[in-house]
């Protein structure tokens, strides 16, 4: 890296809540044509709240929540935190469990003791339940679609091989998400939304932010594949990826410039070359991304 780049990178970090690991990264940023954003925990603050608890069959809403929270104990996904927090608020004790397993971008499973006997409880998106041969009733599909149209994330639960109900959660956009997206678009950059959530929920968020390019229901490895596709076209390369989760790590590793939020998982932060820093009491802002690109352009476009 040139001495200027290192100097600029360092001062930017100190002043504006962005940590750039080395001057090369800042130098690369003036060439960017595309910025890809993850949805949950990146464009949204990642503190979702439970809004709907819709059991199926004989369960009570509180039982559905209790089962779900007990399985999420083994996960540090924002959705897991939301369910555990709601169970705590309703003073529902978590059930004893073992064999906790997380499938990134799909869901979680564990064996819990329910009414005296061990049961496998699955929790996740529709595809994850279908992979396990759980049949979701037709009227439930319509209900899920309706909730997703409101931008909510829908989580489905099964006990054994039987569908047991759905829980919807709602998250808020980061306060500066719209402003940051608009700023990038005004600079002529393409903004892309990339999420493991379903298309309907993705569209609801994209509409609020004026993002046209959406890739939904994308697995962690497919996220990396989409970044690669964008890198292969001269109209969209080079590509920056902004993400927070374990499910974003492959895409971050693939991108030309990788940006992680400090609130995110360890692996995302290790992989990324830029960190958006947290400061107490406020949501991590996204606009330092915009400022770093502007600064890179101001610094390096003059040189050539
Ligand atoms: P995003 O790409 O928007 O950050 P993820 O890839 O983390 O979202 O998750 C995609 C979908 O997988 C979620 O919308 C949810 O339906 C399901 N999912 C992932 N992790 C969990 C979990 N811990 N509990 C329940 N559902 C989950
Ligand atoms: Mg995420």
From TrEMBL:
Q: Would the keyword Magnesium be found if you checked this record's keyword annotation?
A: no
Q: What keywords are assigned to this protein?
A: ATP-binding, Cell membrane, Membrane, Metal-binding, Nucleotide-binding, Translocase, Transmembrane, Transmembrane helix
The main location is membrane
Q: Which domain of life is it from?
A: Bacteria
Q: Where in the cell is it found?
A: Cell membrane; Endomembrane system
In its keyword annotation, does this UniProt entry include DNA damage? no
Family recorded in the similarity comment: Belongs to the cation transport ATPase (P-type) (TC 3.A.3) family. Type IB subfamily.
- Name the chain's protein: Heavy metal translocating P-type ATPase
Origin organism of this chain?
Spirulina subsalsa FACHB-351
């Amino acid at each position: 890296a040139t001495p200027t780049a290192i100097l600029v990178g360092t001062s930017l970090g100190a002043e504006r809540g962005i940590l750039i690991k080395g001057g090369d990264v800042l130098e690369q940023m003036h060439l960017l044509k595309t910025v890809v954003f993850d949805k949950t925990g990146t464009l949204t603050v990642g503190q979702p709240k439970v809004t709907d608890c819709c059991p199926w069959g004989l369960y009570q809403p509180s039982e559905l929540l209790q089962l779900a929270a007990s399985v999420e104990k083994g996960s540090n996904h924002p959705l897991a935190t939301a369910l555990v927090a709601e169970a705590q608020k309703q003073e529902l004790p978590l059930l004893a469990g073992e064999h906790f397993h997380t499938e990134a971008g799909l869901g979680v499973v564990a064996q819990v003791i329910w009414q005296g006997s061990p049961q496998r409880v699955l929790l996740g998106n529709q595809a994850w339940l279908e992979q396990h041969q759980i049949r979701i009733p037709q009227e439930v599909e319509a209900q899920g679609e309706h909730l997703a149209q409101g931008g909510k994330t829908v989580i489905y639960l099964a006990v054994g091989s039987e569908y047991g109900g759905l829980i919807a959660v709602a998250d808020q956009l980061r306060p500066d998400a719209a402003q940051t997206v608009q700023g990038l678009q005004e600079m002529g950059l393409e903004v892309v939304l990339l999420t493991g959530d379903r298309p309907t929920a993705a569209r609801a968020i994209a509409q609020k932010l004026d993002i046209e390019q959406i890739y939904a229901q994308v697995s962690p490895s497919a996220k990396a594949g989409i970044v690669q596709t964008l890198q292969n076209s001269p109209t969209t390369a080079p590509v920056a990826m902004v993400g927070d989760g374990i499910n974003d790590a492959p895409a971050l590793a693939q991108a030309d410039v990788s940006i992680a939020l400090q609130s995110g998982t360890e692996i995302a932060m290790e992989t990324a070359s830029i960190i958006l820093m947290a400061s107490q009491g406020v949501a991590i802002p996204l606009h330092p991304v915009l400022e770093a690109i502007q600064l890179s352009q101001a610094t390096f476009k003059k040189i050539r």
